[in-house]
Specification:
three-stranded mixed β-sheet; 31 helices; disordered N terminus
């Protein structure tokens, strides 16, 4: 079935033909998934990634170092140190084992669309950096290769029993790719190490994960398997490189709906690293927005006694409601494990309401002994709100991209888990994203506090502070730095991460020492050799210059304003009818979505060096616009605008600057079909007008429509 310029079927959002991909299917060209990833990852260089992706890498590393410091500073982390040693011990395997437990123990790590990556993708390159004498650029490259490899394999199995931290298999890939890229190993070594590791994936059980310290092993054990596989592959041991897609392989066992396409889609242009959301509180991402709301309500309560609060209602998506349901199956109290406390939405919300924050120390004695927290927690109730589920399932993370890839198969899978979530699914024809620069994670919440005197206080958030939020973005570098310093990190270490790509091997070694040294660690830097690391390491030195591509900053800023204007209304709110001289918001959004799909098509022609043309007729056709606006709601229209704009800008970012002058045959028509212009226009001029005139004009229109009821 064909698709119109919006990405929707030409006759509305009806079902598309099922294109089920069998788990045993092989990747295009006959190579296995592992072979394709190994060839790409082993050659990946930092210069291949855009600057915005490199910026995420540095924030990811610094935030993970903050999680490590918080973990080791907690009583549970001190027990980890006693049992498994310091992260600065000489044996890198033991050091990574300890570090992976410390970073997972408080659930203070950050999340990508597919996976809690950093326990392997950051921890392994960090620990191996000193013995391998990595400079900052090589360290960043290793984290990037590990992120992209681990996230893609995780995404391929996302529609299955394990997601988030329970997906221990993420760290099989993260450990292998993180170490082998640092060692500049061959693609053959990668392929055999990944084949060996994924032949013995871990299978976590909820009985221990949600309520005991057994959760600490969820990353540490697969990291050790991955590192052992690296040792074997370096000395000729082999593994099945088709283990992911084989009928008796990983995806067949670990995915209800295998998505092998997710492992290979957009290599070199679709960067999973920029889907990161950053945590500012310890705890599950499914509770973060509710905690943020509670922090804000603390000030509004103005010292109200907890006994005067009669009820706290937390409304959220199916993810929040589902986690609360699971967590309540386990007894919770002052002597509960850290894992159980992490997952307890009532305890975390009550703590934030009473104190105005949620800190690592709130997950330990004496804070957990305070009776007022438990008394208030007993009055915290959670409800599912379909509007929040709708926004969550439309977003990139945690499931949206995978659901889009699954297409029609997604509904039956979601319905088997929870029929309420199935009702919130967006149309099956909505396509997967082709560019993650404006990835979203909309796990929002609404917290209402009811007081004995009859007052109600309410705060609502579309997503957590630090979550991937689309074109308006977050200052992730500032959040990561604040987190690291709040966890006792050395400001010098934060400064070193800020210029990591320029650091020498000696400076990298100092960074690791400063960032991870505890009160009992020797502050003198260790020798930059390690007898536990074998083999010669020859580092890949490449030209640091990136090809000159079209500048997109002004266009991206324009789209940021547009999307912010389109999402400014509270959840479930539809703009009131505009003044007579204004087009309505839905018409505007549909027109933009249609236009950007046309522009993306032209961008591909320019990029390929083919004759290029642009006819805006389909985006101005009243019938096409009406068909789109009548078949979907406002949220889907905003989502179409976001992803179509990202696709368009992503293509421009790949286009050489010298192609700005490429002539494009343009035909422009008005909304009544009358021809307004016909002729050749330089491609760069079309892009300039889009950035400086068209998109700002549409943004102004949306803002005027939103203000119209107040002005009337």
């Amino acid at each position: 079935m064909g698709r119109d310029a919006s990405g929707a079927p030409p006759h509305g959002p009806g079902p598309a033909k099922d294109a089920r991909v069998r788990p045993e299917s092989r990747s295009p060209g006959g190579d296995s998934i592992i072979r394709r990833l190994a060839l790409w990852g082993s050659r990946l260089d930092l210069g291949d990634a855009p600057d915005r992706v490199v910026a995420h890498l540095k924030s990811q590393i610094l935030s993970q170092l903050g999680a490590a410091r918080a973990g080791y500073g907690h009583p549970l982390g001190r027990r980890i140190s006693q049992a498994y040693g310091s992260p600065l011990q000489r044996d890198p395997k033991h050091a990574v084992h300890s570090l992976s437990m410390a970073t997972v123990c408080l659930d203070f790590d950050d999340t990508a669309y597919a996976g809690h990556l950093s326990h392997s993708t950051v921890n392994v390159p960090l620990i191996y950096a000193s013995p391998l004498r990595l400079d900052g650029r090589q360290l960043l490259t290793s984290v990037l290769a590990a992120n992209e490899t681990a996230a893609r394999i995780t995404a391929a199995a996302t529609l299955g029993p394990f997601r988030g931290q329970t997906a221990g298999h993420t760290h099989l890939a993260g450990a292998v790719a993180g170490r082998l890229r640092a060692e500049n190993a061959s693609a053959d070594t990668w392929a055999h190490a990944l084949g060996m590791a994924f032949s013995v994936p871990t299978w976590s059980l909820s009985r221990g994960f949600f309520s005991t310290d057994a959760k600490l092993l969820v990353a540490a054990v697969p990291v050790q398997i991955g590192l052992s596989a690296c040792d074997g592959a370096r000395f000729g041991l082999t593994g099945p490189e088709d283990v992911l897609e084989h009928p008796q392989g990983f995806l067949h066992r670990f995915a209800d709906i295998p998505l092998p396409e997710e492992a290979l889609a957009g290599l070199g242009s679709l960067w999973h690293t920029e889907t990161f959301s950053y945590k500012i509180h310890p705890g599950s991402a499914y509770t973060s927005a509710a905690v943020d709301c509670a922090v804000e309500l603390h000030s509004a309560l103005g010292g109200v006694d907890h006994r005067d609060i009669t009820e706290v209602v937390v409304e959220g998506s199916i993810f929040t409601a589902g986690l609360d349901r699971i967590a309540r199956q386990h007894p919770i109290g002052p002597d509960s494990s850290v894992a159980a406390l992490n997952f307890s939405l009532p305890y975390n919300v009550a703590t934030a309401l009473l104190t105005g924050s949620l800190l690592p120390s709130d997950l330990a004695h004496p804070a957990v002994d305070r009776p007022d927290r438990w008394e208030l927690a007993d009055r915290v109730h959670t409800r599912h709100d379909p509007a929040f589920s709708r926004h969550a399932l439309l977003a990139t993370a945690p499931l949206g991209q995978a659901l889009r890839r699954a297409g029609e198969r997604a509904e039956a899978w979601v319905r088997a888990i929870d029929a309420r979530a199935a009702e919130a699914l967006p149309p099956a024809w909505l396509e997967p994203e082709t560019d993650f620069r404006w990835a979203t994670k909309n796990l929002g919440a609404r917290v209402t506090v009811r007081l004995r005197d009859g007052r109600e206080l309410c705060v609502e958030r579309r997503g957590a502070v630090g979550a991937a939020s689309g074109a308006d973005g977050t200052d992730h570098a500032a959040l990561a730095r604040a987190k690291f310093l709040a966890c006792g990190g050395d400001p010098e270490a934060a400064d070193l991460v800020g210029r990591l790509e320029h650091l020498s091997p000696e400076e990298v070694a100092r960074l690791v020492e400063l960032a991870l040294a505890g009160p009992d660690d020797d502050p003198v830097p260790r020798p930059l050799t390690d007898t536990h690391v074998t083999g010669d390491v020859t580092h890949d030195v490449r030209d640091l210059r990136k090809d000159s591509a079209m500048e997109t900053a002004v266009l991206e800023e324009a789209y940021a304003g547009l999307i912010a204007a389109a999402t400014a209304a509270p959840l479930g709110h539809q703009a009131s009818a505009p003044r007579p001289d204004e087009r309505d918001a839905d018409w505007t959004l549909a027109h933009i979505a249609l236009s950007d799909r046309l522009l993306a098509s032209t961008a591909r022609q320019v990029l390929a060096g083919d004759p290029a043309g642009l006819d805006n007729g389909p985006a101005m056709d009243p019938k096409a616009v009406e068909e789109l606006t009548s078949s979907v709601d406002r949220d889907v229209l905003v989502e179409l605008v976001r992803r179509n704009a990202a696709e368009f800008v992503g293509l421009l970012a790949q286009t050489p600057e010298n192609q700005r002058a490429t002539p494009v045959i343009v035909r422009l028509v008005g909304d009544k079909g009358e021809e307004l212009f016909s002729g050749a226009v330089p491609w760069g001029e079309i892009v300039r007008l889009r950035a400086e005139d068209h998109i700002p004009g549409h943004t102004g229109r949306l803002r005027r429509i939103a203000r119209a009821p107040q002005e009337s």
